[in-house]
């Protein structure tokens, strides 16, 4: 595998075209679009596959996992309504691309990945090559990360069978959870707004296809 961290006019142009595609597909949040236009997605691709980096597709990153489709990243991020300084728990670090987008919006990110090889790779690339310094953890994120709770926002980037109660407990009042829920084939994007200590407003949105969330409160 050969990675090169060069970002020149060719990649910048490709990112601009990707942003235009996302606008056509209905992404409206200007800050989210700015972040997509800024983060060099090709840094997560082997040199051989650079020409795939700015297509609106998910792509294998090893260990049977994928870097999410840019549209999916933009869609989930838009639903989180990130404000500068938000404390965000991300479950499923993967490549770290979504992490960078959240940090570009000013969030402080606590991110968990269960695959050790991905965790090690991303823990190196984000701070060393891109200047993003989230809090990295390796382990089962389906139980959240209680020792740093509560969070303003929680995002799950793998498909869950149900909304884990434990994640709702780790949200602040007024906080938002975004999680794909369904079977192993397809999932509906679900947002849950915590309106009181034990009160939640749940909205079920569009259909997606994620790799499974594997763990104690998952598959
Ligand atoms: N947003 C990421 C990206 O763009 O690279 C998405 C990565 S992928 C779609 C989902 C990730 O969730 C995979 O890397 C997978 O290993 C991880 N995952 C699955 N179950 C998990 C769990 N219980 N805890 C932490 N990570 C988990």
TrEMBL record:
Record keywords: Cytoplasm, Methyltransferase, S-adenosyl-L-methionine, Transferase
Coarse class of the protein's main subcellular location: cytoplasm
CDD domains: AdoMet_MTases
GO molecular function annotations of the record: protein-L-isoaspartate (D-aspartate) O-methyltransferase activity
Highest taxon of source: Bacteria
UniProt-annotated catalytic positions: 68
EC nos: 2.1.1.77
Single GO BP term: methylation
Biological function: Catalyzes the methyl esterification of L-isoaspartyl residues in peptides and proteins that result from spontaneous decomposition of normal L-aspartyl and L-asparaginyl residues. It plays a role in the repair and/or degradation of damaged proteins.
Descriptive protein name: Protein-L-isoaspartate O-methyltransferase
């Amino acid at each position: 595998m050969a990675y090169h961290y060069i970002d020149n006019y060719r990649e910048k142009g490709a990112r601009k075209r990707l942003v235009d595609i996302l606008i056509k597909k209905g992404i409206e949040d200007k800050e989210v679009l700015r972040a997509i236009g800024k983060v060099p997605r090709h840094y997560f691709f082997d040199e051989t596959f650079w020409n795939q980096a700015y297509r609106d597709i998910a792509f294998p990153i090893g260990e049977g996992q994928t870097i999410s489709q840019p549209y999916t990243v933009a869609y989930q991020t838009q639903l989180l309504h990130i404000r500068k300084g938000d404390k965000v728990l991300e479950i499923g670090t993967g490549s770290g691309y979504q992490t960078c987008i959240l940090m570009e919006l000013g969030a402080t990110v606590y991110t968990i990945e269960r695959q050790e090889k991905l965790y090690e790779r991303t823990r190196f690339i984000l701070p060393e090559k891109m200047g993003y310094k989230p809090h990295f953890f390796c382990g089962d994120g389906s139980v959240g990360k209680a020792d740093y709770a509560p969070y303003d926002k929680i995002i799950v980037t793998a498909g869950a069978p149900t909304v884990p109660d434990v994640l709702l407990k780790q949200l602040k009042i007024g906080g938002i959870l975004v999680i794909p829920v369904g079977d192993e084939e397809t999932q509906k994007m679900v947002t849950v707004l915590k309106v009181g200590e034990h009160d939640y407003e749940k909205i079920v949105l569009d259909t997606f296809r994620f790799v499974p969330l594997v763990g104690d409160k998952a598959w």
